[in-house]
Amino acid sequence: RPVVFSGMQPSSDSLHLGNYLGALVNWVALQDTVDPIYCVVDLHAITVAQDPAKLRESSRRTAAQYLAAGIDLERSTLFVQSQVPAHAELAWVLGTITGFGEAGRMTQFKDKSQRYGAESTTVGLFTYPVLMAADILLYETNLVPVGDDQRQHLELTRDLAGRFNSRYGETFVIPEAYIPEASARIYDLQDPSAKMSKSAASEAGLVKLLDDPKVTAKKIKSAVTDAEREIRYDRQAKPGISNLLDIYAAASGESIETIAARYEGRGYGDLKKELAELVVERLEPFRARTFELLDDPAELDRLLAIGADKASERAERVLAQVYERVGFLRRR
Ligand code: TYM
């Protein structure tokens, strides 16, 4: 079975609809046919300042949302990145074969460093994609289900794996991105030229999974559209409507054509109202289950510790091979 690895940064209040449709739904669907490993990437989270107590809480919240979405521990390994030291260890080694210029070309780094300013742009933020490469390469991963925004990081991961292999001998499996079209990029409901993101200036266009259903419905019904009346898919001319159709398709499993045909001759109001109902209905059991899991943090921690043991065993094997290849003395 192909190995699948993916992760998300813990976020304090809730994951958003982009995380859910862009990644989590695919993680769940893949479970039947692959060997899945899913991670809460708290080492990545501290590349921006975090309140320690909140970070702990965010990691639990994020793990709870994976489980509530349908990640099943019988089939999947679920763990928190900082509990498996091999991630940081391999990242160091990979950093030594990453070009300074190469890392500097990462568009996410360029965007973030511009936004944060020179003072808050840390070396950790710069080497962030190298840590991500380590996450993936430690598990001999074949497929990485992510949203489109991670495509460049995946390319870097593949380059580093290939470079290490040619310098030190075949060690790493070269992974591939898994980015289904419809859900690859969910946009902000108020600004359909920007991807939905927790760092958006305003939360009006950000659908948070754990929000009150009334808030979610209102955000969807207030989504920005255009001055025409026709419901059809056209990314360039009709970004708002196209985004709603993408969300509809990803949330319902129907094709864009089927949905567009159903709304032919009907108004934007109908589409938004029914999409709001669909999303709220879909998220309802998810929310309830998340809060239920969060009621018992000790049990959640116990499940995560089991996941960390399973992940460590696999990661240590690959790391030992890397250390051997690089020429480190074996510890007796
Ligand atoms: P993160 O935490 O920003 O996002 C988690 C996942 O959600 C996807 N995503 C979206 N998909 C569609 N539309 C959107 N608007 C949208 N916003 C976010 C992301 O593509 C991602 O799949 N660096 C990664 C985390 C990471 C990782 C890894 C992923 C660390 N190590 C190893 C895969 C494998 C990140 O910050 O994702």
UniProtKB/TrEMBL annotation:
Main location (coarse class): cytoplasm
Pfam families with a match to the protein in the record: tRNA-synt_1b
Xref: InterPro entries: aa-tRNA-synth_I_CS (IPR001412), aa-tRNA-synth_Ic (IPR002305), Rossmann-like_a/b/a_fold (IPR014729), Trp-tRNA-ligase (IPR002306), Trp-tRNA-ligase_bac-type (IPR024109), Trp-tRNA_synthetase (IPR050203)
Motif ('KMSKS' region): 195-199
Entry binding sites for ATP: Q9, P10, S11, G18, N19, G147, D148, D149, I186, K195, M196, S197, K198, S199
CDD domains referenced in this protein's UniProt entry, alphabetically: TrpRS_core
Top-level EC class as recorded in UniProt: ligase
UniProt-recorded Gene Ontology molecular function terms: ATP binding; tryptophan-tRNA ligase activity
Gene Ontology biological process terms, A to Z: tryptophanyl-tRNA aminoacylation
Residues annotated for L-tryptophan binding in this entry: D135
Signal peptide: none
Keywords for the protein's UniProt record, in alphabetical order: Aminoacyl-tRNA synthetase, ATP-binding, Cytoplasm, Ligase, Nucleotide-binding, Protein biosynthesis
TM regions (residue ranges): none
Domain of life: Bacteria
Enzyme Commission designation: 6.1.1.2
GO cellular component: cytosol
Subcellular location: Cytoplasm
The protein's role, per its UniProt record: Catalyzes the attachment of tryptophan to tRNA(Trp).
Family: Belongs to the class-I aminoacyl-tRNA synthetase family.
Oligomer status and interactors: Homodimer.
UniProt protein name: Tryptophan--tRNA ligase
